[in-house]
Design a protein that fits this description.
Blueprint: E1 4-7, H1 9-26, H2 29-41, E2 66-71, E3 74-80, E4 84-92
Parallel strand pairs: 1-4
Antiparallel strand pairs: 2-3, 3-4
Helix pairs in contact: 1-2
Length: 100
Amino acid sequence: MGKTIIWTHRADAELSEAFLELLEESKSIETTIKVITEIYESTEVLMENPEIYKLDALKENNKGNIRAYEKHTYRISYLIEEKAIYILRVRYARKEPLGY
């Protein structure tokens, strides 16, 4: 068994916000649910292979334990700890990049 995936409050709120924005834009509940579900489920691969993605270039002073990837034009940033993976951010990738 791999590491546990833990969604931070911020990432969870950002995913909920993405749901509402996508629903407003697409006008399709089915499409919105599909995209958000795929984003959410995409984190499962991290349980067994957390270093599959590149280091997060937007993280200042990254010590090598924060990585990021894109799914459906959303950028997911995560922190690798000894026993868990913390999902830190979910942000629309076409917005102005924000360092953190």
